[in-house]
Amino acid sequence: RRKAGAELLDGLNDQQRRAVQHAGTPLLVVAGAGSGKTRVLTRRIAYLLAERDVHPGQIMAITFTNKAAAEMRERVVELVGRRANVMWVSTFHSMCVRVLRREATTLGMKSSFSVYDADDTRRLITLVSRDLDIDPKRYTPRGLASAISNLKNELIDPESAKDKAANDFERRTAEVYVEYQRRLGLANAFDFDDLIMRTVELLQTFPAVAEYYRRRFRHVLVDEYQDTNHAQYTLVRELVGTGENGLEPGELCVVGDADQSIYAFRGATIRNIVDFESDYPQATTIMLEQNYRSTQTILSAANAVISRNPNRRDKRLWTALGDGEKIVGYVGDNDHDEAAFVAREIDSLMDGGDTGEVKYSDIAVFYRTNNQSRVFEEIFVRMGLPYRVVGGVRFYERKEVRDALAYLRVLANPDDAVSLRRILNVPKRGIGDRAEACVSAHADKQRISFNDALRDAVDDKVPMLNARSRNAIVGFVELIDDLRGLVTDGHETADILESVLERTGYRAELEASDDPQDETRVENLTELVTVAREFAHELPPEDPDGDGDGAADEGLVEPGSLAAFLERVSLVADADQIPDEDSEATGVVTLMTLHTAKGLEYPIVFCTGWEDGVFPHMRALGDPTELAEERRLAYVGITRAQQRLYLSRAIVRSAWGQPMTNPPSRFLDEIPADLVDWRRVQPERSAPSAPTTGWGRRSFGGGSGGGSSAPSFGPAKGWKDTPALSLNVGDRVTHDKYGLGTVVATDGVGPRATATIDFGTAGSIRLMLIGSVPIQKL
Ligand code: ATP
Ligand code: MG
């Protein structure tokens, strides 16, 4: 059911309302965290559709993640009805893929192109630098890839890079860039950065194409504008236009917060926000000042930290939500102790504690880098806390999954050389390195694609190739052509994938192995088939391309098709894996990096690892620019919390297998002492007689987290200090929450001893860390 315009303005303050209703000139909404920027963007779209007679096909909205895009679309559909489904709401990358599918031939590519991710890119750069005789120790593929990425983010093409190169590294980079770009073309592939750069090229080189999109998208809206880079900035400008051919520029609305810019390493620049008014002279700026997310305590902490950054426009955020609870601070002896505290605290929050109903899905744990998740996972598994880690080694990065996808990509795009070379001899079929090198050299010499060179091998036109290799190649080419027949016959992706796993012998090989890892691999492949099956049965939008005719454009991928599936998997980002809130169940605790947390909110947040060298990151310690970026990351982290915030650090943390002693994060010093309730600071080692009753409670001055000058108040009631209960199979125990249970298995010793306990219907079977859960032996 559609909402009337007046209703669309409900639940907005005056400034938000102004932003929703603003018409005619470019609009910038700048405001601190939790002030409703994203809400304004969503409502504005609904308002355009309901009150200003804008057709949904005229709207392009850009969000930072696919998940955020899906949510925004859903919200708008709730507000104004299903017709809103045809809007373009997506990330920059997805939007560009869509444009490029349609316009590929204009750029000399085919619409069946592949999208290369970081791993594909590195592979191709490795091949290129090998062919160019570049010393991989001196110039690593990773280094080259990142240098080329930076050039692309600045819209510098290979020729200009060559002209600009001022030192040896830049000259080598430019050389690789030229050849890499040529190979991408031969492979009919775009890398991530190309998606943006080449779309800009398309719009700038072909005025008719640009005009088509400008006529079509009369409204462009961008969330998280502070994290756009130069290429994305230019893309937005090109889409909106400057009023050529009598066409009014499109209406632009961007929202952002310079204090939350945390992607400088990807070329993001707050210049785009700071200079908005000079870039768009007609621009109107609206500031929002009320925060609707967090308590005053949380907000004050965030403001205190961010105000230390130089050269920023100060904004005063306030909230009507009251002071709320104090921030809880904790200092662990080591990272395991810190994790145990988090787990224990979650357990007691779930028991009701003093907060009433809490669901696991209300809770998030943040850390600076992905590798910090491991200690949390260990303890969460032990304690039976349901959780989900977002990011890290992702499903789509697993070898077997990438292999299977490489087959599919080759079927969709025969020229995809990186995928082709990946599967050429996987599983082993007698096409060795030498044979591959012969084919590759032939491709290079003839300036043809690797695929064409393989076909030359079949015709015996590749020199130096022995008969056995040639036969193997003949077999491979036939297999691929057969499988490709399934695609042209319109089989479902899941069935094609099944055939690939079957006919290549890939699955059989894994099944025959007695390596337990291979068993997991088979499961992952089964999972991939399931993903493909579900994807094909997703409901397509009523009008796939949103131009109002109910049909897909020529060149646009068929919904549910192989190409659409590959597109989906190549563009998943970490943040897209964040579990949806499930109102029925109690859900799971979400673990993620601070970067991934941007734009999200949780009632309860644990921000961990506040140590100089961890957070702020080691490489920021001597660099004011990087330090300012880390501080913005702290601001992002703190402002995700709605009701309760925990800040913790460990005195000793293992890094690269070595224990490291890190001083408290300097950001802790920046938080006013009266906001934090330190549950535990460093226990004084030389005070064995200290009282041992429960938590030490006090406000800790300056938050330096308990240096050696801190008075002692005894050890915490943690697993470290609880005498290990000795349990055997068959013992009867009681648990404060789950009641009576029977030990069915035990494992580990000392503080790491675990027991598997059957609590019957009350709590089912749970694995618990004996020292850290409230159990008694009967
Ligand atoms: P961030 O900077 O973290 O991206 P944001 O500025 O985009 O934050 P939103 O996520 O849009 O903020 O809003 C924060 C929270 O406040 C959300 O839960 C939102 O629903 C709520 N909110 C926003 N505006 C209002 C309002 N006028 N009345 C009540 N709640 C609001
Ligand atoms: Mg937002």
Descriptive account of the structure:
With 778 residues, this protein is an alpha/beta fold. The protein folds into 5 domains: 5-101 and 196-288, Rossmann fold (3-Layer(aba) Sandwich), CATH 3.40.50; 114-187, Orthogonal Bundle (Arc Repressor Mutant, subunit A), CATH 1.10.10.160; 298-386 and 586-703, Rossmann fold (3-Layer(aba) Sandwich); 396-539, PCRA, domain 4 (Orthogonal Bundle); 732-777. Helix content is 41%, strand content 15%. The strands form 5 sheets. Strands 11, 12, 13, 14, 15, 16, 17 and 18 form an 8-stranded mixed sheet that branches. A hairpin with a 3-residue loop joins strand 19 (732-735) and strand 20. Helix 6 crosses helix 9 (168-186) and helix 16 (335-350) crosses helix 17. The chain starts with a helix and ends with a strand. 45% of the residues are buried. Mean pLDDT is 87; it is low at 542-552 and 684-723. The structure holds adenosine-5'-triphosphate and magnesium ion. The site of adenosine-5'-triphosphate has 18 residues, from helix 3. Residues 699-708 have a biased composition (Gly residues). One of its GO terms (biological process) is DNA replication.
User: Unreliable runs, pLDDT <50, ≥5 residues?
Assistant: 542-552, 684-723
Number of helices: 28
> What level of helicity do the residues show?
40-55%
Number of strands: 23
The span between the termini is 59 Å
